[in-house]
């Protein structure tokens, strides 16, 4: 009976992905005694209603006696909005099932509050990909960091003469822009900003940028001032920080929970050596170069025993390319 509600809640969470920071992208589904779907809700942008409140408002009186399935344990604190656990109680919900516990000490405890009110509460152990960056960021107190790169089969991002456009296919580049829409910030180093004059925005197939309110923040790390020289970033607006630690602290304090590092080998290596990479997003092209620019600058390990290893958590074929998603072990 819960299967359809779980799928509906997960789908609602996916719709909110990239729009809710610093809040998590949560989905909620309400069903009646027969398992029929009553209402669905997803978390609104920061300051707006949480998923449970959206679903309850859609349901109205039909929520009384219903079962709620939520991708994250209902919150139990008052921030910009009231506690969702209490809203579920007030609406007369009979049972609540959640997929992931809330790691935030200020907001957790919703499940117990529901139990204390006589509501049936259960945990459904199910992976929620859209929540993983937020969950890790909340535990670490810094943004979740994904390093993204496109490379040849033999591990090069550019040929000997420096040419790199385009190693991957149009399909892969389209996927990259869809992914950018879900990130809170895109980060590059000063060398990339000066050499490539990037826009660091998300664009449609025809090159038209998506609306500015959907765009990730554009961030440059390094001591060289790139304002003016990086014309696209100067025109669109960007933030610059001298160090990685400074950038991550400022971004987290300002609500960013999921950031993407697209800078070159030097910046990627710096993040890896600092132990700050939580995930890798690798686009693998069916190209052999033999030599050229490597993916990561500088040595990371002298022996295999010292090497940091990542776990494959997802893969997707994009034309003749492959996208490989890895998480830090």
Automatic annotation (TrEMBL):
Cofactor: Zn(2+)
Residue span(s) of domain CMP/dCMP-type deaminase: 1-111
Residues noted as binding substrate in the record, renumbered to the chain: 164, 180, 200, 203, 262
The keyword Transmembrane is assigned to this record: no
The protein's Enzyme Commission number: 3.5.4.26, 1.1.1.193
Signal peptide (from-to): none
Entry annotation: catalytic residues: 52
Catalysis: reaction(s): 2,5-diamino-6-hydroxy-4-(5-phosphoribosylamino)-pyrimidine + H2O + H(+) = 5-amino-6-(5-phospho-D-ribosylamino)uracil + NH4(+); 5-amino-6-(5-phospho-D-ribitylamino)uracil + NADP(+) = 5-amino-6-(5-phospho-D-ribosylamino)uracil + NADPH + H(+)
SUPFAM superfamilies tied to this protein: Cytidine deaminase-like, Dihydrofolate reductase-like
MF terms (GO), sorted A to Z: 5-amino-6-(5-phosphoribosylamino)uracil reductase activity; diaminohydroxyphosphoribosylaminopyrimidine deaminase activity; zinc ion binding
Keyword annotations from UniProtKB, A to Z: Hydrolase, Metal-binding, Multifunctional enzyme, NADP, Oxidoreductase, Riboflavin biosynthesis, Zinc
Amino-acid positions noted as binding NADP(+) in the UniProt annotation, renumbered to this chain: 150, 166, 192, 196, 223, 264-270
Protein role: Converts 2,5-diamino-6-(ribosylamino)-4(3h)-pyrimidinone 5'-phosphate into 5-amino-6-(ribosylamino)-2,4(1h,3h)-pyrimidinedione 5'-phosphate.
NCBIfam families: eubact_ribD (TIGR00326)
Name recorded for this polypeptide: Riboflavin biosynthesis protein RibD
Naturally occurring in which organism (per UniProt): Corynebacterium yudongzhengii
Gene that encodes it: ribD
């Amino acid at each position: 009976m819960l299967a359809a509600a779980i799928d509906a809640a997960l789908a609602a969470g996916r719709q909110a992905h990239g729009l809710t920071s610093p809040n998590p992208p949560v989905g909620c589904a309400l069903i009646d005694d027969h398992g029929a779907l009553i209402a669905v809700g997803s978390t609104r942008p920061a300051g707006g209603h949480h998923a449970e409140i959206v679903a309850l408002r859609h349901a109205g009186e039909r929520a009384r006696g219903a079962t709620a399935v939520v991708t994250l344990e209902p919150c139990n604190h008052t921030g910009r909005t009231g506690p969702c656990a209490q809203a579920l109680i007030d609406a007369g919900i009979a049972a609540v099932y959640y997929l992931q516990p809330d790691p935030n000490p200020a907001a957790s405890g919703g499940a117990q509050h529901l139990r204390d009110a006589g509501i049936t509460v259960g945990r459904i152990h199910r992976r929620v990909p859209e929540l993983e960056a937020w969950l890790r960021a909340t535990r670490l107190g810094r943004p979740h960091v994904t390093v993204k790169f496109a490379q040849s089969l033999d591990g090069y991002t550019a040929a000997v003469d420096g040419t790199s456009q385009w190693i991957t296919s149009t399909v892969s580049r389209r996927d990259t822009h869809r992914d950018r829409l879900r990130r809170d910030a895109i980060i590059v180093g000063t060398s990339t900003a000066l050499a490539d004059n990037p826009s660091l925005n998300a664009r449609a197939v025809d090159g038209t940028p998506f609306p500015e309110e959907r765009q990730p923040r554009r961030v440059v790390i390094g001591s060289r001032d790139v304002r003016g020289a990086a014309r696209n970033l100067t025109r669109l607006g960007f933030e610059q920080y001298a160090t990685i630690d400074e950038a991550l602290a400022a971004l987290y304090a300002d609500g960013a929970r999921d950031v993407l590092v697209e800078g070159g080998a030097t910046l990627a290596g710096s993040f890896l050596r600092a132990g700050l990479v939580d995930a890798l997003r690798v686009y693998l092209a069916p190209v052999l170069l033999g030599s050229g620019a490597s993916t990561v600058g500088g040595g990371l390990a002298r022996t295999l025993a010292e090497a940091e290893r990542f776990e494959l958590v997802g893969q997707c074929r994009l034309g003749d390319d492959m996208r490989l998603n890895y998480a830090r072990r």
